Amino acid sequence: GILQQGLKGVQNYISYKYCNPDKPENMTIKYTNQRSNKLKIREDNKWKIRNKKDVLEELYDRDKNVEEVLSVYEHINELNEVEQMDKIQVSFLNMVENVFENDDEEETNVLNKAKSATLDDLYNCYAENKDIYK
Predict the structure, then answer these.
(1) How many domains are there within the chain?
(2) Quick check: 119 and 51 in contact, CB under 8 A?
(3) How many whole angstroms separate alpha carbon 11 and alpha carbon 63?
(4) Could you tell me the residue range of the domain that residue 22 belongs to?
(5) Is residue 134 included in any domain, yes or no?
(6) CA nearest 113: which of 102, 101, 125, 105?
(7) Given a cut of 80, is residue 126 above it in pLDDT?
(8) Residue 9: beta bridge partners?
(9) What is the DSSP string of 42-61?
(10) For 93, what's the count of Cα atoms within 13 Å in the CB-facing half-sphere?
(11) Per the domain annotation, does 133 fall within a domain?
(12) DSSP string, 15-52
């Protein structure tokens, strides 16, 4: 599952959330030009240009997305109490915390690779689903 993958799981979750043709209402990030440092975000049914680095910082915001991934996992597995956090969740948190807490080069590279892969996913998603991004 996603939690056993640590940060890669967060990356997969972001791709699933923002590039799922079954949920076109969530396809709110349009990345059409890989050479550009801009992308488009749909807000109030309008496409607004944003800096892609800022958007990636928001997507990889530890508190927001890690909590979201955990809550989806809890929902799927019908866990309802924080005290019920299982070994998989604890392991996931430890892996993710390691990436976010350490400023060493290796962990920074892990985070940057995940962000780069997310950009690739968003670009490919747009290329494959242009009709949905209107």
Answers:
(1) 1
(2) no
(3) 14
(4) 2-128
(5) no
(6) 105
(7) yes
(8) none
(9) EETTEEEEEEHHHHHHHHT-
(10) 12
(11) no
(12) HHHHS-TT-GGG--EE---TT-SEEEEEETTEEEEEEH
Segment 69-77 long-range contacts (CB within 8 Å, at least 24 positions apart): 69/2, 69/3, 69/9, 69/10, 69/13, 70/3, 72/13, 73/1, 73/2, 73/3
Q: What pLDDT score was predicted for residue 83?
A: 58
Strand (E) or helix (H) holding 10: helix 7-18
What distance in Å separates the CA atoms of residue 34 and residue 120, rounded to the nearest whole number? 8
Q: Is residue 63 part of a domain?
A: yes
Please give the structure tokens belonging to residue 102: 């350490």
- Model pTM score: 0.85
Question: Side-chain half-sphere of 128: how many Cα atoms within 13 Å?
Answer: 10
Look at the block and give the residue holding tokens 């991004």: 133
Do residues 29 and 41 lie in contact, with contact meaning Cβ atoms separated by under 8 Å?
A: yes
Cα–Cα distance, 95 to 4 (Å, whole number): 9
For residue 73, being part of any structural domain is answered with yes
Residue range 67-121, pLDDT digits in tens: 888 888 877 777 655 556 678 888 888 888 888 887 788 888 899 999 999 999 9
